[in-house]
Amino acid sequence: MFAAIGRKLFGTKNERYLKTLGPVVDQVNSLEDKVRAFSDADFPSRIAELRQQVEAGKSTDELLPEVFALVREAGRRQMNMRHYDVQLIGGAVLHGGRIAEMRTGEGKTLVATLPVVLNALSGKGVHVVTVNDYLARRDAEWMSQIYTFLGLSVGTVLHGMTDEERKAAYGADITYGTNNEFGFDYLRDNMKFYLDQLVQRDLHFAIVDEVDSILIDEARTPLIISGQAQDSVAMYAQMDSIIPRLNPENDFILDEKARTVSLTDEGVIKCENILGISNLYDPANIAYQHHVLQALKAHRLFKRDVDYVVKEGQVMIVDEFTGRLMEGRRYSDGLHQALEAKEHVKVEAENQTLASITFQNYFRMYDKLSGMTGTADTEAVEFKQIYDLDVTVIPTNRPMVRNDQADLIFKNQDAKYRAIAEDVTEKHKEGRPVLVGTTSIEKSERLSSLLKKRRVPHSVLNAKHHEQEAEIVAEAGQTGKVTIATNMAGRGTDIVLGEGVRELGGLHILGTERHESRRIDNQLRGRSGRQGDPGSSRFFLALDDDLMRLFGSEKLQGIMNRLGLEDDEAIENSMVTKAIENAQRRVEGRNFDIRKQLLEFDDTMNQQRTVIYSQRRDIMRAQPAELEEMVNTFVDEQLDGLFESLEHSKSRHGDEEEATEFVAGRLDEIFNLGRVDELREKLPTRDAARDAVNERFGVLRQGAPDMYTEIFRFFLLDSLDRNWKEHLLNMDYLREGIGLRGYGQKDPKQEYKREGFELFQDMLERIKETTLRSLCRLRLQQEVHEDDFQHQEEKNVTYAGGGESEAAKKKPMKREEPKVGRNDPCPCGSGKKYKKCCGR
Question: What region holds the Helicase C-terminal domain (predicted)?
């Protein structure tokens, strides 16, 4: 009650913030006459002057009014598009590192040019993030008319570009691209070996278009770069053959709400009998247990043409929010292979993670982040908690007059679809354009077949080609046009009403069911009623819709039965609509919890990732002396640890034989100092061991003086990458089973942090050890090029040892050393036996 009174007296938080931006808009407007007097040549020169002021330390906040005025005038001259006052407000909100909620058709693409130009003055680069390649290319080309007029460079990062093209795009003042391309480039850069191979600069400022889609809807799917694992694919077909023999009533429990499946005791016994094993939960049989459950999920929870499609012999994921095919994406943990086995297509080998990051943690690395969308306010809490982003709702340029009608609820799907087909047919006869939003490809095709029977011409949009998608959606406002599309298809493209349509009532939106998220429903409604246009919207629901079925349609079913309603009769009730929205809130809360839990687990990985990637950059940037110091520190740490353990064992037990054998073994294992039996007879002192390692490094320096420290750099990075890849696999295994700790009254998240830290510490030690193992076993071989063969000149040095690498796969022709017996005199001329000298 007090909060309501406070809002009436002082306005909402949103209204109070918008009021503070009023003077900013007034300042911009006061400069309009001044910049209109500029010649075209004055604009780039003035931007260059302002860039120098920023480099000298002037705040971009101080320059905002003038820059916004320059951008507005550039838009008017180049594109005949003058920013409205509400668009200036949107630009100021974005510059402030907030999310601007702007209704569809309010010109978000143009709004972004204001803060983009202002923040580009820093020279550190601005990223504009879109949901697909088509929009990235379109927006960059469209808005570059403003940017180039002002003397700023524009780049676009698209799928399939080379590293050189990417580097040039990131080097521009403003870079457009998709969230996937930006994220994957970050991961790929952290797998490179040399600084000049990096394509991205430091992450400075990003504006995320359709921010709710990218930072919330896609946040449950991390970006992963993977390589093929060595697992056999035969098990997937074997597990798939078991599923038809399991009885849903007795053998397993299905929870559609939580999208989980588990075996009953009867189901476990049946699986054990089929597989011929005594205990499915024996650690030795953990693979069977895992793959049986994944096969069950594939058959019982994942539906063809809803969750995935089969296209050209491949299982392709369908994005549940956009209806788009997610090319190149695969489900993890063997689920994708289980689906391939189910659909009897080729089962691809499972992949091993080489690098990964969540969108949450990627975008939180920017110095400043902002976003824009038509629907964000319903997720304001999540934006604040996860990204520390406030949501500001920007007023529309013209009043909203769309008529949002109450939902119609039918008994079943058949009755609902008949009513939808009838409504669409009537609207088509009237000449009104209709956009029908569906939640899956399957439902789009079902409705399409009904309209074909009624001979209603229509377009079906399954969002397989973005260019075609945008074209179809752009024409959806023409007289009599009927378009069937997944709820989010064509997002980012305005639907402009054709001639005479306003008089007919504008575009009609018809939703075939409610989505789990209110925001997705609002996005569909938002396609109508742009810039004060007339329009209407209505949702048709059935009691057996997924949302209704899972979240409380029992009471409604009883009411409809008591009222004696026929199948084709619908009820229209505001209380029912409210109950549905409450169900959506519960689902939204559950999905938020899932994303938050994913982030909490990934935060542990993110801390480790930050350390490793920071170390990689340090190694890549290090000067020769720093690299030597790094390796020498590794040597001292290893030797100190070994000889301290020896002294400790002597003083504690008085028996040094076992300790001596351990130290001897480790000296040979790490530093290649000789056979264990020889070292045991005469174990060197710590200083003598250090001298022996120095001698090895001396030989390396002598053999390759120009490449000495580069050899260090190569093996440091190689060792780091190998061990990090193995660590990621170990963390995946840990994450998979950590939930079981809850049964032992332990917090799985805390256990994951604790054990993950221990694994990380072990990995850091292995990086040091494997680097030294490689360096101390390195053999230099002379390289002879064919064209110089007669002169026998030494040209380069090739590395061998330290495992197979990309460089090792491209070895040039080498001259092999002569074969020498272990007891023969060493060919180096030292007078020692080969086994005691170079053959050690």
Answer: 412-588
- Which strand (E) or helix (H) includes residue 613? helix 574-621
- Write down the pLDDT at residue 560: 64
Q: Are 235 and 290 in contact (CB under 8 A)?
A: no
HSE toward the beta carbon, residue 211, CA cutoff 13 A: 35
**What is the distance between the alpha carbons of residues 267 and 293, in angstroms, rounded to a whole number?**
11
Total residue length of the chain: 840
The answer to whether residues 538 and 510 touch, using CB atoms and an 8 Å cutoff, is yes
Confidence of residue 353 (pLDDT cuts 50, 70, 90): confident
Positive or negative: CA dihedral 496, 499, 502, 506: negative
Inter-CA distances, 710 with 669, 705, 714, 799, Å: 24, 10, 6, 11
Please tell me the distance from the alpha carbon of residue 333 to that of residue 290, in angstroms, as a whole number: 9
User: What domains can be seen in the chain, in order of their start residue?
Assistant: 2-222+361-393 (3.40.50.300), 230-349 (3.90.1440.10), 403-579 (3.40.50.300), 613-778 (1.10.3060.10)
Q: Are 159 and 181 in contact (CB under 8 A)?
A: yes
CB contact burial 433-464 (16+ within 10 A = b; e otherwise):
bbbbbbbbbebbebbbebbeeeebebbbbbbb
Nearest residue to 70 (alpha-carbon basis) of 43, 41, 90, 109: 43
Q: Is the pLDDT of residue 233 over 70?
A: yes
> Bridge partners of 100?
372, 392
Distances (CA, A) of 69 to 27, 91, 426, 669, 759: 9, 12, 49, 69, 55
3-state class of 817 per DSSP? coil
Q: Tell me the C-alpha to C-alpha distance, in Å, between residue 597 and each of 219, 342, 349.
A: 11, 30, 29
Q: What is the DSSP letter of 196?
A: G
What amino acid occupies position 412?
N
Alpha carbon of residue 91 to chain centroid: 26
CA distance 420 to 487: 16
Q: Which of 102, 68, 104 is nearest to 88 (CA)?
A: 68
Pick out the residues of the known binding site for ATP: 87, 105-109, 494
Q: At what angle do helices 133-149 and 108-120 cross, to 10 degrees?
A: 60
41/44 Cα distance (integer angstroms):
6
Q: In this structure, are residues 531 and 466 in contact, taking their beta carbons and an 8 Å threshold?
A: no
In 3-state terms the chain splits into helix, strand, coil percentages (rounded to 5) of 55, 10, 30
Identify the three-state secondary structure at position 463.
coil
The CA distance from 321 to 157, in Å, is 24
d(CA 179, CA 133): 10
- Would you state the pLDDT for residue 257? 67
3 state DSSP class of 122? coil
Give the type of residue at 717: L
Closest CA to 105 of 415, 500, 523, 458: 523
Find all residues with CB under 8 Å of 677, minimum gap 6, and list them: none
pLDDT in tens, 12-37: 889 999 999 999 999 999 999 999 99
Which H or E run includes 539? Answer: strand 535-542
Question: How far is it, in rounded angstroms, from Cα 494 to Cα 501?
Answer: 15
Using one digit for the tens of pLDDT, what is the confidence trace for 749-779?
888 899 999 999 999 999 999 999 888 887 7
If you search the block for the tokens 């260019």, which residue do you land on? 467
Neighbours of 4 (CB within 10 A): 8
Interatomic CA distance for residues 749 and 738, integer angstroms: 8
C-beta atoms surrounding 549 within 10 Å: 14
- Cβ contact 799:778 at 8 Å: yes
Binding positions: 87, 105-109, 494
Span 470-491, pLDDT tens digits: 777 778 889 999 999 876 545 5
- Whole-number pLDDT of residue 286: 66
64, 23 contact by CB (below 8 A): no
- pLDDT, the chain, mean: 84
